[in-house]
Amino acid sequence: MHELSIAESILDIAATEAATHRAAAVTAIKIRLGDFTGVVREALEFAFEIARQGTIAASATLEIERVPLRTRCPACEMPGASGYCFICERCGTPLEILSGREMQLESIEMAEEEEVTWIASP
pTM for the complete prediction? Predict the structure, then answer.
């Protein structure tokens, strides 16, 4: 399951950013995931739930924005048909992929360090 290594990589990036910004915790992570990446969304969500345990993102949520596969013909400009046929129905030219291969970390929400108030005893 390569989704586990992807989840771990996402969490590594989040932990690095949290350390850079001196955050107390990572509360949410948003990614964009294309239909043509080969990543199974449900498997990634499951892997994230497991991999986040014991990390600075232990209570973080994972939001996944689905990016649909979109293609077009570079010769006749016809948009590609749905599905995974990569030959233009009109002219037979191989289609160009416009979207659907994305796997991008869009944002990381972090909680600031809790302020500690020191009270001096008299």
Answer: 0.83
